[in-house]
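Researcher: Structure prediction, please.
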Amino acid sequence: MDFTPSTRSLRSALPVLFVASLFGCHRPDHQESFPFVVGSDSLSFEGEFRLRDGAGEWMRCADGKRFKTVGTGVDSLIMLYTTQVGHMGDAVKVWLLGGWSADSTVVAHRLVHLAPALRCAALPNSSNSGSFVLSYGTPGRDERRAQLDLFPSGLAVQYSTFREATEREEFGSWGMDSDGLLQLTWPQRPLVLSFQVRGDSLVQHNARNVDAIATFVRTGGPERGRGTLGIVLALLSEVTSKPQRTFDAATLGTPLAALEVNDTAMMRLADLLVERHGMGPEVRERRWSSISTLQDLLELARTLER
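Model: Predicted structure follows.
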């Protein structure tokens, strides 16, 4: 299916500049800078659609902002929504072609696709970040202990032990979905868990066993200096041009170059891993040339700890 919007309805070269700047549905904040309605089939919209009390609402995936929807394409969208969505008000992923009106309403000219099983990616926010401790609230289930650190960037780190086993460190991601649920994703399992935010507590949502509902209680801000993550961030602070710099926990895909780690710093970083963490020559020869992101460095450090 072709998702590429047509620009045949644009009347001059000037609106093309506006369309180029808005192609990802990033509309200017002030309507004065965009006083006209873009013509039919000029912009592509990707987001979530909900129908409440007969009115349609579209949410932009990139930032979670919500907009009213009007236009000829809304009729077919509502018809398909009512036949494919089990509960009115639920969100579904949609792709539309259309434009903006002067009052920031989405003018949908054509429905391209509706996917009931898909949703926009959950987005992190700083108000729900922090360090949380696991509490089951059920006697006899305290054999498992866990600390969950949620960073504002969307990085999630969990340190857990079961009975007397060695502590396990896991890396994942988190964010808030359009229903207000906190979605916690562990790619290596793979597993996605949903939590309701109740004050300073995260309560597991729709757990299969009501006697094993996990609750995480906030104890403060996320700990950046613990475990493998803390080791890696401390090493990075030593090899950059600013030795006293305190690194924040960034997203795992952050390139090391973006953290001011140049070629000289990479060589020093490799030496520190050899000196302090026992990285052997075979590992350095085989893996070091492929290390380019924070995630690469974390995975290598975790390998050396085994």
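Model: The radius of gyration is 24 Å.
Researcher: Thanks, that helps.
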